[in-house]
Amino acid sequence: MPHHTPLISTIVVGLVLAFALGAVAHRFRLSPLIGYLLAGVLAGPFTPGYVADQGLANQLAEIGVILLMFGVGLHFSLKDLLSVRAIAIPGAVVQIASATVLGMGLAWLMGWSIGGGLVFGLALSVASTVVLLRALQERRLVETERGHIAVGWLIVEDLAMVLTLVLLPAFAEATSSASADIESIVISLGITLGKVIAFVAIMLIIGRRVIPWILHYVAHTGSRELFRLAVLAIALGAAFGAAELFGVSFALGAFFAGMVLSESELSHQAASETLPLRDAFAVLFFVSVGMLFDPMILINEFGPVLATFLIIVVGKSLAAFAIVRLFRHPNSTALTIAASLAQIGEFSFILAGLGVDLQLLPEQGRDLILAGAILSILVNPFLFTLLDRWFVKRDTARAHAKAEAVAAEEEAMAQEAAAAAAAREPLPVTPLTDHVVLVGHGRVGKYISRKMAAIGSPLLVIETNKEQVADLQKDGLEVVVGNAADPEVAAAANIKEARCLLDP
Predict the structure, then answer these.
(1) Contact at 8 Å (CB) between 435 and 413?
(2) Is residue 428 packed enough to be buried (19+ CB in 10 Å), middle (13-18) or exposed (0-12)?
(3) pTM for this one?
(4) pLDDT tens for each residue of 18-46
């Protein structure tokens, strides 16, 4: 029996290289996606050494796309989206439109078709879920307002890309004909939307009942193996059925299967049970994408690569920053969102591959997208590092300013007190000695003063109440007006020569 087959060698070499380079990337605090893509470059036809079977790699990547989209649907949260809908929906739409226009402008300068420019621009407009969530989780921002906005924004982008993947084949078919006109394009898109609506209706009406019922039945068997198999069968079966019966993409079928399953009580268990297989095929997907990348484009097409990189890192970020600020959110939120979206990833690769397959996007466009993705994912951690340093510097400056303001206020109060003390007349010191100093002349104080008068003991009262002061002076008792805690008042009462101090 032969031990070297294309399928086994493609899987083994892809996973081993991905592990090695992913670990190196993680060691340098970069996204492991960089390692997976570079593993594909090493296993691809554009570098010396081993060359994996491209056809098999693409089929494995298709399974990776299905499981990736199933995971996106499984973690889709309508609640998270609705909580920040006021900014996430218009913000994401405007940002996608801005990046798409910039991408189409670059495509026009390179002489591409409108369809190619549209695919290119859309691929540059959507950020990587993996990279964004990792950056937010490292900084414990997922549960903050900034994190909620970023996640909601990402959900809108993902939904827009799902819709694009559905409509793009119909658009390509309608525009490929020499006699294509607006009417034929609209009819083709309408037919596709009709199929999508029929599929969505079946999934929402029947799937929402059948899929959770199947999972609950399997869960009650107590077999984790059967439960894991049931989840995979649902994901792959829905994707395959959507493509075969309704003519829509694998991605849409898998996404809706995950979204329907996310409403079940068993969604978290389903996610955890299938995570290892989803991760493995996702890695193979990124490896297969890297196999398509020609590193020489970084030299031969330096200008277009730089322009693509600037659209992703600068153009998208400026658009996102401006939108967030227009909604009157602080600079910290706007900068976090801008940095989070300054990269592209998995959806960009899926869209680029579909664009090339449909002959809308030239292979040069796919290479530029891959180069832009690798460079932007490489740069993204450094953007967050700069942002973290800016936050620290800003918070330190605010703390210093606050401390200086408090110190200045205290100094002003001290100066004001000193000025007030200098402006008033000094209290005369009583000539009494061996006397009793009584603080306050309330009910108890009056009783004490009567007893002192009865035995003929000299008495001095410290009092702040004007009426009490007047009564005491009328009775011939010596009074010092003021607070007994004031050193000047205590000195005027000659406490150091007093027999005792009473504070009833």
Answers:
(1) no
(2) exposed
(3) 0.70
(4) 999 999 988 887 778 888 889 988 998 88
Query: Residue 461 pairs with which residues in a beta bridge?
Result: 438, 479
Task: With beta carbons less than 8 A apart as the criterion, state whether 95 and 87 touch.
Answer: no
Q: Residue 213 and residue 220: Cα distance in Å, rounded? A: 11
Cβ-contact 156, 402 below 8 angstroms: no
DSSP 496: G
**Position 313 pLDDT exceeds 90:** yes
Answer positive or negative: Cα dihedral of 269, 274, 276, 282. negative
Structure-block tokens of residue 254:
């898998």
Q: What is the dihedral of CA 405, 411, 416, 418, to 10 degrees?
A: 170
Angstrom distance (rounded) from CA 17 to CA 139: 29
Report whether 311 contacts 103 (CB < 8 A). Answer: yes
360: phi then psi, degrees, rounded to nearest 5: -90, -40
Residue pair 49/396 in contact (Cβ under 8 Å)? The answer is no
Q: Which two tokens stand for residue 450?
A: 């009567």
Which carries the bigger pLDDT value, residue 238 or residue 142?
238
Query: How would you label 105-120 residue by residue, b for 16+ Cβ within 10 Å and e otherwise?
Result: ebbeebebeebbbbbb
Sheet arrangement for strand 478-481: 478-481, 459-463, 436-439, 500-502
| Nearest CA among 133, 124, 131 for reference residue 77 | 133
pLDDT in tens, 195-219: 878 888 888 788 888 888 888 888 8
Interior CA angle at 400 toward 398 and 402, to 5°?
Answer: 65
d(CA 159, CA 73): 10
Instruction: Say if residues 81 and 152 touch (Cβ distance below 8 Å).
Output: yes
Query: Cα(337)–Cα(327) distance, rounded to whole angstroms?
Result: 13
| Identity of the residue numbered 79 | K
pLDDT band for 106, please (50, 70, 90 cuts).
very high
Q: pLDDT exceeding 70 applies to what percent of the chain?
A: 93
Contacts for 111-115 with beta carbons within 8 Å, 24 or more apart? 112/361, 112/362, 112/365, 113/360, 115/171, 115/172, 115/175, 115/360, 115/361
